[in-house]
Amino acid sequence: MSQSTTIYPGEVFADTQVFDTGIRQLIPHYDLMLDTLIACVPKNAHRLLDLGCGTGELSLKLLKHCPEAKVVAVDYSPRMIEYAIAKLQQAQLNDRVTFIQADFGAWGNGEIKEEIGTNFDASVSSLAIHHLTDEMKQKLLTCISKNLVEGGCFWNADPILQESPQLQDTYLKLREQWTINQGKTIDDVRSNIGNSEPQGYSGQDRLASLETHLSMLSSAGFKTVANPWRFFGLAIFGGWV
Question: In 3D, which of 68, 232, 203 has the Cα closest to residue 137?
Answer without folding.
Answer: 203
